[in-house]
Write a structure and sequence with these properties.
- The structure is a single chain.
- Helix content is 89%, strand content 0%.
- By secondary structure, it is mainly alpha-helical.
- The chain has one domain.
- Helix 1 packs across helix 2.
- The N and C termini lie far apart (62 Å).
Length: 170
């Protein structure tokens, strides 16, 4: 009997479970802050790569726009953190706390999806050598991972940002 164990799927399930348990413990408000941090990190990474490429190509306008976007995302992130701080206090109220915990589970799962989508984007963009080949093979062996990777929302957001930047240059 040949048993095939997909290690990547097991790792993803463990990560999802731990993020969901953590979400239940800290609640949705705290998870929302973490999720926001992850999203901002992904956007900042894309913008940093765009800034690097524009500097490398000598395109001053694109470099300036990329730097302005980096600063804008940083400011928006600070504003979001200011809004979340009072929400943490409200989340401590008895009835709201229970709802906050249940919603925290969903946000923990959402964090896992974003991490997986970012991983898929890195593998598809940069290859990542043997590790990327192993990830691609593991995803191909799992219907669940294939479904998650095929429905990568980040692959819709990044082209949207690139098109938006191209329209700003015109």
């Amino acid at each position: 009997m040949n048993i095939h164990i997909n290690i990547l799927l097991i790792v993803c399930i463990v990560v999802a479970f731990t993020r969901m348990v953590h979400g239940c413990k800290v609640g949705m408000v705290e998870e929302l802050g973490t999720l926001g941090s992850i999203l901002v990190s992904v956007v900042m990474l894309v913008l940093l790569l765009m800034t690097y490429n524009s500097i490398k190509s000598g395109n001053r306008l694109e470099t300036l726009l990329s730097i302005i976007l980096l600063l804008s995302v940083s400011i928006v992130y600070k504003i979001i953190k200011l809004v979340i701080s009072p929400a943490k206090i409200l989340a401590g109220l008895p009835i709201i706390h229970s709802v906050d915990q249940v919603c925290g589970i969903a946000f923990g799962l959402a964090e896992t999806l974003i991490i997986l989508w970012a991983l898929e984007s890195l593998v598809s963009t940069f290859g990542l050598g043997k590790a990327g080949a192993w990830i691609t093979a593991s995803v191909g062996d799992s219907l669940v991972l294939t479904y998650i990777f095929d429905h990568n929302c980040l692959t819709m957001i990044v082209p949207f940002l690139l098109n938006w930047l191209q329209n700003l240059k015109k």
